[in-house]
Amino acid sequence: MSHLGGSVIPCDACQRVPNLIGGKFVDSSSFATIDVINPATQHVVSQVPMTTNEEFRAAVFAAKWAFPAWRNTPITTRQRIMFRFQELIRRDLDKLAMSITTEHGKALKDAYNDVSRGLEVVEHACGLATLQIGEFVSNVSNGTDTYSIREPLGVCAGICPFEYPAMIPLWMFPVAITCGNTFILKPPEKDPGASITLAELAMEAGLPSGVLNIVHGTNDIINAICDDDDIKAISFVGPNSVGAYVYAKASTKGKRFQSNIGSKNHAVVMPDASMDATLNALVAAGFGGAGQKCMALSTAVFVGGPSLWEEKLVEHAKALKVTAGTEPDAELGPVISKQAKERICMLIQRSIDSGAKLVLDGRHLVVPGYEHGNFMGPTILSDVTVDMECYKEEILGPVLLCMKADSIEDAINIVNRNKFSNGASIFTKSGVAARKFQTEIEVGQVGINVPISVPLPFSSVISSKPSFSGDVNFDGKAGIQFYTQVKTVTQQWRDLSSENVLPAMLLSSEEDASAMPLPGS
């Protein structure tokens, strides 16, 4: 089928994406909307309303109202809802993946991975009870015990980017609500469909009204989330500038905050690296999802130079099938919007003007049958230096930058000097080089002969440098620490009437010890 016509093909009866407030999916009264556009066809899929301030306050009120009963719901009951939730996600996996591909553009296999990685977090949430166990110390003073317990914070909020329409929301609300919090979710306005479907499944799983709420919008809603005194914590994934703004604003209001923002992930390729395995890793991690992911290996640093690698790298990249994500043989779909493509092309051209060598140019690719799609073929730039804009900025496109390092020390310095980095990988056959890299590299996630990837949920998603800001990271024990607060209780249950004790204070352990009879006395 050919998809020709204007730049955006309007929809005469487009569905408006609803809010979720107090257990009900309701249409916003706002007339202001944003079109959700299929990036492969330019068809308008749906329209996202800009949630009004009154609707936002209603969502917060619903979450605040639901919190007391939800926090007192036994953890085993909350876990059972998560068990049911993950069953329903599996049931509707095809629907979720198709929604992601239609709105985001990524190939269906990448969309399935998007949901599957989020599903792992839900599975992890099914076992949170043991991770919330507190600590107990008996007889810290004579007849006195002390213990700590973890309690939920209250109303929490999540602000999500477009890159992972299912995984990022699932990083946030399953852990938060299983810990006993209620939640306000702001999905990405470019691809909100997966968030709505997930909310429908959570309600079907038995989540009580008001525990999960959804609002839509851009700057106004983000500001409202930051300013609202009833929201105790914010999880954020998104661009550098927005993340820094939200962090500053939320911190001023005394909120807990966690964020993963821009990244520039590196692959250091040693001369002894296995060529086929390394090439496959670079192509998959560099171009997968059209490079629109915070885990992309966007920069390859070749120790000794890339000359021996370039020809094979181009050959592997050209072999990728670029087409609409819904096509069965799709390996690389379009980028999210016309504006995103224009920005990527601008960064490529500025790099060429600054002296970079264009090894493979994917800017002018046209996909038959999808002539108006936002497609870009794999693009490779060589002779890239640290002062080029393409290196200093997060590209979020199918562009691989190739750099030269004279030694592993030089390569490590290049990575460590970059201001944004979720992680870095090294490809080598040398255990000595791998150990040196692991020890000296200053990133949160390290890959050895593998690209960096989203860790399994029992390990936290760790970023360092400005790529992470806030209190503690996502997932794992850190996620539970973020969504709960510790309360320490000291109790005394001895018979005070039978002993001569100080009524206004507890004896210290030293005083208790001095009052104890000595052996044989």
Verbal overview:
- The protein is of the alpha/beta class.
- Helices cover 38% and strands 21% of the residues.
- It is built from 17 helices and 21 strands.
- A 7-stranded mixed sheet has the order 15-16-17-14-13-18-19, with helices on both faces. A 6-stranded mixed sheet has the order 10-9-8-11-12-20, sandwiched between helices.
- Strand 16, helix 13 and strand 17 form a beta-alpha-beta unit.
- Helix 2 packs antiparallel against helix 4 and helix 10 packs across helix 11.
- It is globular, with a radius of gyration of 26 Å.
- The N and C termini lie far apart (98 Å).
- The relative contact order is 0.13.
In round numbers, the mean pLDDT is: 89
Distance between the termini: 98 Å
User: Which overall shape is indicated by the principal axes computed on the Cα atoms?
Assistant: globular
Query: If helices are DSSP runs of H or I spanning 4 or more residues, what is the number of helices?
Result: 17
Q: Beta-sheet strand percentage?
A: 15-25%
